[in-house]
Amino acid sequence: MTRRLLLVGAGHAHLEVLRQLKEEPINNVDICLISPSDYQYYSGMFSGFTEGIYTREETRVNIRKLAKETGVHFIKKMAEKILPSHHKLICMDGSVYPFDVISFDIGSKSLPEEFCETVARSIKPNYHFIDHIQEIRQTSQPLIVGGGAAGTELALSIQAYKEKHRLQGQVRLVTSETILPQSPSWVSSKMKTLLLKKGIQVWENERVKEVGDHYIKTDFGNKIRHTGVLWLGGALSDPIFQRSKVEVDNKGFAMVRSTLQFEEYDYIFGAGDCVTLSEYPELPKSGVYAVKQGPILFENLKNYMTDQPLIDYSPQKTALYILSTGRKKGFLIYGPLVNHSHRAWKVKNKIDLEFMEKYK
Ligand SMILES: Cc1cc2nc3c(=O)[nH]c(=O)nc-3n(C[C@H](O)[C@H](O)[C@H](O)COP(=O)(O)OP(=O)(O)OC[C@H]3O[C@@H](n4cnc5c(N)ncnc54)[C@H](O)[C@@H]3O)c2cc1C
């Protein structure tokens, strides 16, 4: 009898599942991919696109095409709720999809609910990225909220774009913590020095509490003018898991075991930003982990559907981050090691191009 596997979201881990399915199909399983766009945009190349190094095509994977080549049905929809014990998924348009096994790789959100009706923009889901960045990089005082890896990288890339095209203005960055708060303090101050040297204005330890059409206000009492706000203030969960009453952490991310199965349901799997591992609750929400979970997720979906034992995922102790800082220079962070050079950018460029090559 044919069973149905639903893949929800075309994030990093599901791209790998699709790629492996092409090489190793699972017999008697009907597979559907549900995602709201024909394309999956790769965040590793967002900085390069912003600065004008990569084209739109280079930055994205055509998932409709990839699904077709893999024999997977592509359904262009947004999932809204799971009815776990009924084995059903409900989409935003009210359509219902029954499943035997389901897997989530839907990423995270970044814009808090209270700012959704303001001029602040989020690049999540990530197919919004191109339009928002093309608009904001042309304006004279774009303001980035968030001083983590994504916020600093995009601030530097927009500034580099402005320099390259001799556009007037200056990027502004406001963050509720320090710059790169998860790194050692000397790494944070090195990055802050770089931002200032590039002409970016920085406000640290100030939380945005109001977003107006032309200014933001912080809890420190500062009123900062802007010509557009891009919100990159850290990963927030999609409400789908709370809505579905599955077990979540205190931020609403679905709790999974090391086999990437949901805590209470063996037939619901999840990977990437949208889940929190019970054994590693502090693991950062970043693409490097979603990528590494891909092969384990494929193996476990296949094994679960063929009654084979599942394997465990355990994250690497140290992850490599290379942030593009403009003009093809990279800021490499690996544990306590930091290197800011053209060579670091070349390594990043190679990793990113090789990643995309696998799914084209
Ligand atoms: C500017 C920027 C730069 C970054 N650079 C790096 C980096 O260099 N290295 C790194 O490790 N991390 C980086 N990150 C973080 C990284 O982007 C995320 O951690 C990563 O994308 C998470 O991958 P994912 O597979 O969980 O989900 P995503 O890549 O976000 O993919 C989620 C998918 O699910 C779909 N989707 C969303 N909601 C639904 C729904 N309700 N129903 C169906 N489908 C849905 C989306 O359309 C998308 O296809 C960066 C982030 C930003 C913003």
Describe the structure in your own words.
- This protein has 360 residues and is of the alpha/beta class.
- Helix content is 29%, strand content 25%.
- The chain has three domains: 3-109 and 236-305, FAD/NAD(P)-binding domain; 113-234, FAD/NAD(P)-binding domain (3-Layer(bba) Sandwich); 320-360, no CATH class.
- The protein is built from ten helices and 23 strands.
- A five-stranded parallel sheet has the order 5-2-1-9-19, with helices on one face. A five-stranded parallel sheet has the order 10-17-11-12-13, covered by helices on one side.
- A hairpin with a 2-residue loop joins strand 21 and strand 22.
- Helix 1 (12-23) packs parallel to helix 4 (63-70) and helix 1 packs across helix 9 (287-305).
- The chain starts with a strand and ends with a helix.
- The mean pLDDT is 96.
- The structure holds flavin-adenine dinucleotide.
- The site of flavin-adenine dinucleotide has 39 residues, from helix 1, strand 2, helix 6 and helix 9.
**Average of pLDDT:** 96
Quick one: overall form? globular
Are there runs of 5+ residues with pLDDT below 50, and where? none
Catalogue the ligands. flavin-adenine dinucleotide
**Considering the protein shown, what is the CATH homologous superfamily of the largest domain?**
FAD/NAD(P)-binding domain
From the N-terminal CA to the C-terminal CA, the straight-line distance is 33 Å
Tally of alpha and pi helices: 10
CATH classification, class level of the largest domain: Alpha Beta
Sheet with most strands: 5 strands, parallel
State the secondary-structure class.
Answer: alpha/beta
**Beta-strand proportion:** 25-35%
Please tell me the CATH architecture of the largest domain by its name: 3-Layer(bba) Sandwich
The strand count comes to: 23
- In spatial order, strands of the major sheet run 5-2-1-9-19
Report the C-alpha radius of gyration, rounded: 21 Å
How many structurally independent domains? 3
- The proportion of residues forming helix, as a percent range, comes to 25-40%
Could you tell me the CATH topology label of the largest domain.
FAD/NAD(P)-binding domain
InterPro entries: FAD/NAD-bd_sf (IPR036188), FAD/NAD-binding_dom (IPR023753), NADH-Q_oxidoreductase (IPR051169)
Keywords: FAD, Flavoprotein, Oxidoreductase
Family: Belongs to the NADH dehydrogenase family.
Pfam family, one: Pyr_redox_2
